[in-house]
């Protein structure tokens, strides 16, 4: 499997992956594909990677966008969405996307990464429950962070307006 930056040729596959991956997810509004499309249209995808199988098929996608903390840019990024086609899940594709995405953030000089997600999955990848960060409206146990340089900042995690897609 190859993890690489998205190209224009991947856009249809990325849409399909995000729709299919979240179709039956109990905590999804099924708008993840819209979030990615709006982030892309706004030029707000700081990192966007795909997982490509040996046959050339794209089976996974991950997006990272800037996440202001306490209303200002502190070099932190928001992970999400990350999506893997149902038939390719539980094979390490999502984990590989997260690891490569974090490597890309480190190369950019990012200070850290935050997300809202399943602690059982993300703690295996180095994330921990945020202590000083909060994501308004989300229970604290689902707000995770990974400082890449320095410490966890204090404040509410912001997001691009694209995350309001479908509301």
Would you summarize the structure shown here?
By secondary structure, the chain is α+β, with helices and mostly antiparallel strands. The protein has a single domain, classed as Aminopeptidase. It has helices at 11-22, 32-41, 93-107, 119-122; strands spanning 2-5, 47-52, 58-66, 76-84, 112-116, 128-129, 133-134, 143-147, 155-156.
Helices and strands, in order, run as EHHEEEHEHEEEE
CATH architecture: 3-Layer(aba) Sandwich
Provide the residue-averaged pLDDT.
94
Say which CATH homologous superfamily is assigned: Gcn5-related N-acetyltransferase (GNAT)
Task: Outline the structure in words.
It is built from 4 helices and 9 strands, in the order βααβββαβαββββ. It has a 7-stranded mixed beta sheet with strand order 1-2-3-4-5-8-6, with helices on both faces. Strands 7-9 form a two-stranded parallel ribbon. It is α+β, with helices and mostly antiparallel strands. The mean pLDDT is 94. The longest helix has 15 residues, at 93-107. The protein has a single domain, classed as Gcn5-related N-acetyltransferase (GNAT) (Aminopeptidase, 3-Layer(aba) Sandwich). 25% of the residues lie in helices and 26% in strands. Strand 4, helix 3 and strand 5 form a beta-alpha-beta unit.
């Amino acid at each position: 499997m190859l993890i690489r930056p998205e190209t224009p040729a991947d856009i249809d596959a990325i849409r399909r992956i995000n729709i299919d991956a979240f179709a039956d997810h109990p905590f999804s509004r099924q708008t993840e594909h819209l979030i990615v499309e709006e982030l892309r249209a706004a030029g707000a995808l700081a990192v966007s990677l795909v997982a490509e199988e040996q046959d050339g098929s794209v089976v996974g996608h991950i997006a990272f966008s800037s996440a202001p903390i306490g209303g200002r840019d502190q070099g932190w990024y928001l992970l999400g969405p990350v999506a893997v086609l149902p038939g390719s899940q539980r094979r390490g594709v999502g984990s590989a996307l997260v690891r490569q995405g974090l490597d890309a953030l480190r190369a950019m000089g990012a200070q850290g990464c935050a997300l809202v997600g399943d602690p059982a999955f993300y703690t295996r990848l180095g994330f921990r429950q945020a202590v000083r960060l909060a994501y308004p409206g989300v229970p604290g146990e689902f707000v995770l962070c990974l400082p890449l340089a320095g410490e966890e900042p204090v404040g509410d995690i912001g997001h691009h307006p694209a995350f309001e897609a479908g509301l």
